[in-house]
Amino acid sequence: MTRLVLFDIDNTLLNTGGAGGLGMNLAFEEMFGISDGFANVEFSGRTDLYILSQGLRQHGISGGHAAYMQGFLRSYHHHLSRTLMERKGHLEPGFPQLLEALRRRDGVRIGLATGNFSEAAWMKLEHYGIRDYFFDGAFGEESLDRAKMLRAGLRRFAGDVAPRDVVIVGDTPHDVSSALANGFVAVGVATGSYTIDQLRDSGAELVFQNFTDWQSAAAKLAGEV
Ligand SMILES: [Mg+2]
């Protein structure tokens, strides 16, 4: 039996020190001449596709995200490769040890459940040295809505794994609700801007302050205890 443990990226695995948001803002500025274009868009727990379409809408740019995706992605990846170097970020506590401990377990596969556009997701993981732990994932371009994004991603790479064998680990109530909407196991970690209580109140079955105690967390995520 396979258990899939899927991680959110920002504020769950790592913190880029703002490199992601800055990269998106610079790409938006390059395309539309509007600086800080995403200033009034909530990023936390949202898919990049949602963030992009909100940015376009707030500035009255018509045509929808599909019309601008290719150009935006090209520019974003270009800027992100630089902002990742310029901004000082970090892996969250307990990484990469937690990933290493999960990788050693038979029957556990480690993937992503991230709102990031896929190429940007891999760039962030590469920059922080953890790319090779992940086999695939659900990514931001799959939907505006995080629950649908998860469903589409899983359909693509997971085959017919039972929902209760899919564990979603994230730092926001959006991560939790997207897991619950699909019948997956929701795990919250309070390394972002939400507390353990807020994550538990949003429906997370398991909550962690952080993964400093990665041995115990690995056993719980693997469903051994
Ligand atoms: Mg996050």
CATH H-level name of the largest domain... which superfamily? HAD superfamily/HAD-like
Tell me the strand order in the biggest sheet: 5-4-1-6-7-8
Q: How many structurally independent domains?
A: 2
Let me know the number of strands.
8
CATH topology-level name of the largest domain: Rossmann fold
Strand content: 5-15%
CATH architecture of the largest domain: 3-Layer(aba) Sandwich
End-to-end separation: 17 Å
Q: Please state the average pLDDT score.
A: 96
Largest β-sheet summary: 6 strands, parallel
Low-confidence stretches: none
Ligand catalogue: magnesium ion
> What general form does the structure show?
globular
Helix segment count?
9
The share of residues in helices is 40-55%
Keywords:
single chain, 225 residues, alpha/beta, Rossmann fold, 2 domains, six-stranded parallel beta sheet, globular, binds magnesium ion
